[in-house]
Design a protein that fits this description.
Blueprint (H helix, E strand, L loop, with lengths): L2 H17 L3 H13 L5 H19 L9 E9 L4 H17 L26 E7 L4 E8 L1 H4 L3 E4 L2 E3 L3 E3 L3 H15 L7 E7 L3 H11 L11 H14 L15 E8 L8 E7 L4 E7 L6 E4 L10 H13 L6 E5 L4 H6 L5 E10 L2 H9 L10 E3 L4 E4 L5 E5 L9 H11 L3 E4 L5 H10 L2 E4 L5 H7 E8 L9 E15 L6 H14 L8
Parallel strand pairs: 1-2, 7-8, 12-13, 13-14, 14-17, 17-18
Antiparallel strand pairs: 1-3, 3-10, 4-9, 5-6, 7-9, 10-11, 13-20, 15-16, 18-20, 19-20
This protein binds iron/sulfur cluster.
């Protein structure tokens, strides 16, 4: 094989996967956007998402800042040199990271040290299999941490909250799948896609679930029972009303694919792999002699170019959402300003904000802050950053990260430093809600995965502290303009996340009766 060509082919596959959503995913998102009523929070979120998809494609920049865990599945003709291919993929990954197409995402599990090039023990995942055909089939998925953390595995029989007994049959499987969608709420950046694996053991069950994510959104399951279960789940999971980002709405689930394998008599696992709307998976057929791409996969059917129907309308809807009261905030923010805000308000932020993820929150809990945070805004974000030749930093992607990880620290840090607002995704828990009420603070939910949209709102990088934690974990000082988010937890003890969880639980209980005999 011409290995230089092969490396270039892998580079193209990585860049295209990171920056350009496949056609089947675009069609599913378009259908979801059409189901939502104009002016709702769900419609506003989907406008931002579709706008972001278009921006990522145009700028050849990451759709979401979270590169996730790159996973390659490769089928080779007998005799192909897998060692050589692996090395070429490593080089391509490192190059794509250097070029800002992927965020450095590989960290030492014990020390937290970031390798800086997306390589390291176990990363990327590359799985080879041989087949009788005469070309290489190479597929890649970039599955982010926010949705990976919402994967769930059930061991049947089980008692499921809201649904009762789930037995070792199709009806028990049905309950597990509905429960998996409920427990994810909006935290995996819904609306999402699920792959379900029935059978196997704890590891092969999850492998089977993830394998389903390589099926096209619109394929039809050849197994009649699984086909009807997929249809049932698509029809009914969307009745839970969790909606995009967990803001409530008509679409919670964009796709459900179910696979089955044998098991041993003692075990019965149902494994669910949850994937966010930023469903970055592509594939190529590669010539094993020349190393060149022969064909791209997941490219059948109509391509939705989100800019075409209403680029200006989308932009306008994001800037000034209909039926929403848009409030402008500029830090330093006073306690009085914060206490006027209530759940559901849309805010636009101008001025400074500071990024902080896990390492920063832990650090701030027992150190002084490197800057005065009184009245300031903390953004839960691990951006993709590139330094130019003059030494200036540029933001390549900057969507919100999952906030709940900061729950043990957030309230205390807000009170300690006088922070008035935190921005993230997925909401936070009771401890933070109590602190917001006591101290006078708000939680703002940004649109998960909208990394290009938010990068565009960042007008300059004013500085950075604690770079020893690595690029995603450092504290970046960002000057923003028109950064839009929704108040989902306010200083009056209200939480949209709690409300949606409660109402979706009530709806879930309606599915407790046996459907499959
Ligand atoms: S869209 Fe959300 S869950 Fe998906 S990779 Fe991005 S931040 Fe993670």
């Amino acid at each position: 094989m011409n290995i230089e060509n092969f490396q270039e082919s892998m580079y193209q596959l990585i860049v295209e996967t990171s920056t350009n959503l496949p056609k089947d995913v675009r069609r599913a998102i378009k259908a979801a956007a059409e189901r939502e009523n104009a002016g709702t929070r769900a419609a506003m979120s989907l406008d931002t998402i579709t706008n972001n998809i278009k921006m990522a494609e145009d700028k050849v920049s990451p759709i979401c800042q979270d590169t996730g865990l790159p996973t390659f599945k490769i089928k080779t003709p007998v005799g192909a040199n897998q060692i050589e291919m692996k090395q070429a993929i490593y080089h391509a990954i490192a190059q794509a990271t250097k070029d800002g197409k992927l965020r450095p995402n590989s960290v030492d599990s014990l020390t937290g040290e970031n390798s800086g090039d997306n390589l390291g023990g176990g990363i990327p995942v590359i799985k080879f299999a041989q087949w009788e055909k005469d070309y290489l089939d190479i597929r890649l998925i970039l599955k982010g941490g926010g949705c990976e953390n919402k994967n769930i595995q059930y061991s049947l029989p089980a008692e499921l909250e809201g649904l009762g007994r789930a037995g070792r049959d199709l009806d028990g499987i049905r309950k597990c799948i509905l429960h998996s969608v409920y427990q994810a709420q909006g935290q995996g950046c819904s609306a999402g896609f699920i792959g379900v694996g029935i059978g196997g053991d704890r590891s092969s069950g999850y492998d089977l679930a993830k394998e389903q994510l390589f099926r096209t959104v619109d394929d039809v399951n050849p197994h009649p029972d699984l086909r009807s279960l997929e249809e049932y789940v698509m029809e009914n999971a969307n009745k839970l009303g969790i909606g995009t980002m967990g803001f409530g709405g008509e679409t919670t689930l964009l796709g459900c694919k179910i696979g089955v394998m044998n098991r041993i008599p003692a075990s019965f696992y149902v494994s669910v792999a949850y994937n966010c709307w930023a469903y970055r998976r592509l594939g190529v057929a590669v010539n094993p002699e020349t190393g060149e791409i022969q064909e791209w996969m997941y490219q059948d059917g109509e391509k939705i170019d989100f800019a075409q129907p209403a680029a200006t309308e989308i932009a306008a809807a994001v800037e000034t959402p209909a039926e929403q009261n848009v409030i402008t905030l500029t830090a330093p923010i006073t306690e009085e300003q914060i206490r006027e805000l209530k759940v559901g308000d849309v805010v636009q932020i101008n001025g400074m904000m500071y990024t902080g993820r896990d390492a920063i929150h832990k650090y701030l809990s027992d150190h002084d802050a490197p800057v005065d945070l009184n009245g300031q805004i903390i953004y839960h974000c691990g951006p993709v950053m590139l330094k130019d030749k003059e030494g200036n930093w540029h933001v390549k992607a900057a969507g919100p990260t999952t906030s709940i990880r900061e729950e043990p620290y957030q309230g205390d840090i807000m009170k300690k430093f006088g922070i008035r607002a935190v921005i993230g995704k997925g909401g936070m828990g009771k401890k933070t809600l109590a602190a917001l009420q006591e101290h006078g603070g708000v939680y703002l939910n940004a649109i998960g995965g909208a990394a290009q949209y938010y990068a565009d709102c960042i007008k300059s990088v004013e500085g950075v502290d604690l770079m020893n934690f690595g690029i995603p974990e450092a504290m970046w000082h960002l000057q923003v303009q028109g950064f839009t988010a929704v108040v989902t937890m306010d200083a009056h003890g209200n939480s949209l996340h709690e409300d949606v969880e409660k109402s979706s639980f009530e709806k879930l209980t309606q599915f407790a009766d046996r459907v499959y005999k």
